[in-house]
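Second opinion, please. Please look over this fold, written as tokens:

===
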Amino acid sequence: MPQSRCALVPAGSAAGLSGRLKHSVHGWNSHQSATVSVREAIYLSGPHITYTPLEALSPAAFGVLNLRDTLGLRSCFNTVFRMWNPSGAGAGAGAGAGAGAGATVQGVFHPSYRSLQAQTAQMLGQQELSIIKGGGGEFERHPSKDIVLFGLREGAHIQQTAAPLLDDAHRLYEAGDIIDLKALWHGRADDPFAVATVAGTAVLALWTLKAAPTLTQADQMARSLWDMRHQTEGQSA
């Protein structure tokens, strides 16, 4: 149940943004992958990206989620916790309703939930939000497919389609594929599809943050940030 929460920052160049973007992720089962773990890889991103496991963020919420083991099926809390926005000054298990990131992104598995979660976020007073049907229900873009974004801009509902980034047909996850995130980050692994997945997902987050006014400009910014990732490691990685 990983979920991303991004603090809103003003638009600017890729170089300027690298030290100002702050991204907070909270979730639960990201450690269960046999090949990729957010908990182990997050250190590559530096101090501006944090990951908080649900059991540390709120033991009570973690206990409720674990009712799945008792009930034998998922409950509504799986969706509720995906929409939780605890990030921000003073955020934590006891954070009040006023705490929270100014811009958020959410992934869903069932397409019908996109509009429902946008409507709920609007009722909760959120302003900037993007929701996609992502791989495994996460906020992860498939670069070989178009993707429909639901959400909010300045509190108003939006729906926009992002075009594919690659022409080749490719599953988001191929059986037996092992992605070495560290090698990919340091340029020792050559995997255009994996890079397009990373950069393409960043495009949607940057657009949500209003770091770029259009998806095309956000794509250019995401590519620049990826290309500059080693030049700016002292600031953001």
Observations:
- Strands lie at 3-6, 23-27, 49-53, 103-108, 128-133, 147-153, 156-162.
- The chain is about 35% helix and 15% strand.
- The two ends are 25 Å apart (CA to CA).
